[in-house]
Amino acid sequence: RGARVRARGCRAATRALQERANLSRRLAADARQRRQPLAAARLEEKAQENEDNAGVIRKMLLSRTAEEVQ
């Protein structure tokens, strides 16, 4: 039961990070349209950071799932 709760929490964190990345990308596009390249670059960096963090959690989930199967 504990493993399922942790996995569910990790999936929720992954979704939240991906949603934040998507929002940052939309805001970056808006910043570019407003001719604010520094803000756009900062938002793109934040989006990439969030995607990277989500990827780390996904890999962790996949490795734990593989361990549980074995």
Lay out the secondary structure.
Blueprint: H1 2-33, H2 37-69
Helix pairs in contact: 1-2
Overview of the structural elements:
This protein has 70 residues and is an all-alpha fold. 93% of the residues lie in helices and 0% in strands. It has two helices and no strands. The protein has helices at residues 2-33, 37-69. The longest helix has 33 residues, at 37-69. The mean pLDDT is 91.
pLDDT averaged over residues: 91
Give me the Rg, rounded: 16 Å
Shape: elongated
Beta content comes to under 5%
What is the number of beta strands? 0
Q: Into which percent range does the helicity of residues fall?
A: over 70%
Poorly predicted sequence stretches spanning 5 or more consecutive residues: none
Distance N to C terminus = 18 Å
Helices and strands, in order, run as: HH
List keywords for this structure.
2 helices; single chain; 70 residues; mainly alpha
Outline:
Helix content is 93%, strand content 0%.
